[in-house]
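Ticket #4471: structure output looks truncated?

Reporter: J.K.
Steps to reproduce: submitted the chain below (118 residues) through the standard prediction queue, then opened the result file.
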Amino acid sequence: MLPSTGKIRLLNRIIGSRGVPDPIRSVNGPDYIRAVTSIWTEKRGIRIDFTQSGQSKQNPCVKYYNRTVRFDWLTHHLSETLGKIQEFTTSWLCIYNHDRPNMGIGDITLIQKLAFAA
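Returned output as attached by the reporter:
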């Protein structure tokens, strides 16, 4: 989970390249992060929809992604340092986004899906 400043920095980058989303769907998360994110979205006129507590099925994309991360590499790769974990994660995310077909979106990659949406 990203801290609130990291989440806001990431959202600013996404908005810079993709435009303002409406709405943003999010799990409730810790109160402080939820409050900071809510203030940020209110200032920009962005609606945020929080899932109900304990209802992970309300956000199936995140649930599917987390399952994929857990089964595709987390259970198969143990690293002794944070640097090695970050390096492997960066490499895996590149493969996941650019090379790995996703059955949920018609057996195309996420990058191809974004290109079609643009």
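Triage note (M.O.): checked the attachment and the full token line is present. The chain has a mean pLDDT of 77.
Status: closed, working as intended.
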